Amino acid sequence: MYIGEVVGNVVATVKEEGLENIPFLVVHLIEKGKKTKMIVAADSTRQAGRGDLVYMIGSKEASRIFHKRVPADAAIAGFIDTYNLQLKPE
Question: 16 FRET partner, CA 20 to 30 A, in 37, 68, 69, 70?
Answer without folding.
Answer: 37
